[in-house]
Structure to design on (298 residues):
């Protein structure tokens, strides 16, 4: 039996400060995965940044754009943060991704590292479930000029300054005024991001196949300001009315400093992220495990 995928790219966790024993462990795991994939008959390449950080020079390397154009599968070894960063970058190329969890949560990197061999083999042979996750496209506008442009798989978060009071935000949906609210901030989350910051702010869990976004205020001044679910065809506009040192985060991995009068627009990206899961995978199994539901039950 031979791999269904001919050209497989490996991505590792390297954007955080990994040193010493942790670095050696990451290097060893990635090398083990690379050898395993090679034995099944696929050509393995390493993402350039991963190779440089981990010192894995035994494999050909490609940039992110080259991987998107030349490879037919990406294996992400890390946590959900790693997958978010990779997913945003390869989505325009339609590259499918498999996540091997070397982090803590594992909502979207769903293969435990200790089980990767027995789980990954049938997937490489063509036995898997595929799903597509929507993304947000956000822009920051200042005096009618776009000063920041980013994508987000989880969420776009507008935050107050660390040492300032609440921010006042004017919210519009599809050009229609919704409300002006004072709060510590505001979250616009995808269904994927509904299990992240939005959940901590009281937002609902949203099935990933649902075509919608959630807007969740962070510690609102008026308690009647509650999370609301909108169609994913909506265009959301958030204007900074008052508040010092506000900022916008995109998946908590990129940051834009905001000024009074700035507008953040959020709409659906034309690109989707492709995930491959083990055969038989379903979303509710993931929720039950990660949310610790039914613990102590029968």
């Amino acid at each position: 039996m031979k791999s269904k995928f001919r050209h497989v790219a490996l991505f590792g966790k390297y954007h955080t400060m990994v040193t010493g024993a942790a670095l050696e462990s990451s290097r060893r795991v990635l090398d083990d995965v690379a050898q395993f994939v090679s034995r099944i008959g696929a050509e393995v390449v390493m993402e350039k940044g991963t190779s440089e950080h981990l010192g894995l020079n035994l494999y050909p390397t490609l940039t992110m754009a080259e991987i998107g154009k030349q490879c037919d599968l990406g294996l992400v070894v890390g946590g959900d943060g790693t997958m978010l960063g990779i997913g945003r970058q390869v989505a325009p190329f339609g590259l499918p991704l498999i996540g091997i969890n070397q982090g803590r949560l594992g909502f979207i990197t769903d293969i435990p590292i200790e089980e990767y061999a027995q789980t990954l083999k049938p997937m490489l042979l063509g036995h898997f479930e595929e799903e597509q996750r929507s993304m947000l496209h956000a822009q920051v506008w200042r005096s009618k000029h776009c000063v920041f442009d980013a994508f987000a798989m989880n969420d776009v978060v507008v935050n107050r300054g660390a040492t300032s009071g609440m921010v006042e935000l004017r919210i519009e949906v599809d050009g229609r005024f919704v409300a002006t609210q004072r709060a510590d901030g505001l979250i616009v989350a995808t269904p994927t991001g509904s299990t992240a910051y939005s959940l901590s702010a009281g937002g609902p869990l949203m099935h990933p196949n649902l075509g919608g976004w959630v807007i969740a205020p962070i510690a609102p001044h008026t308690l009647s300001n509650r999370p609301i679910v909108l169609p994913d065809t909506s265009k959301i506009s958030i204007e900074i009315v008052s508040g010092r040192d506000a900022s916008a985060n995109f998946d908590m991995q990129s940051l834009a400093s905001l000024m009074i009068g700035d507008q953040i627009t959020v709409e659906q990206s034309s690109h989707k992220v492709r995930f491959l899961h083990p055969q038989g995978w379903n979303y509710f199994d993931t929720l039950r495990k990660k949310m610790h539901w039914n613990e102590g039950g029968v």
